[in-house]
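Example 3.2
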Amino acid sequence: MAQKKRGSSADRKKWAKVRPFRLRVRIVAACHLREVTPREIAKEERLSPATVQYHFGALEQEGWIHVCRKESVNGGIRHYYTADRLRLITDREFKQMNDEERFETSEGVLMHYLDICGEALRKKTLDARPDSHLSHTPMGLDQKAWRDLQNEMDRWLERSLEIKVEAEMRLRKSSEGPIPTVVHLGGFEIPPTVMESTQAHR
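Structure, written as tokens:
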């Protein structure tokens, strides 16, 4: 009778291939947005927990992330990591605000962005690069399209942070100077008069 081979490839869990640079960027970008555990990233990336834990440890030693809190779980300790948090307000935090707090928060973000745009316009950096981007597109959406748009902007926010981290990691190893850049994301309901004005100018 044929004996089952111990430790055969059929018995081992197949992990995704590790791409160290991408993984480290993913970890740091996620830590900018929220508290993150190695277990969470391992599950999302389909990587072995030990491999992901190694990269968390390396990033902590290099000063990219740090342990923000610890939690007892099943007789062990779970570590939560974060990076120097950006001044971002999460959906959960925004929902917990009252109308006045939401208004003041959005007003503050908008006025700060307009100040940046004004300074860039005065210093002539707004159009210094022919491949820079500045656009706004009024549109009429149904509920599904609204949700789809918000989900895509959430993904772009996380990807933009990954691009930021990628640049920081490369710049740390090179003599190249950074390009001061602002990325603005906005998707919000507008008064019908704005749409009417836009259609009138077509």
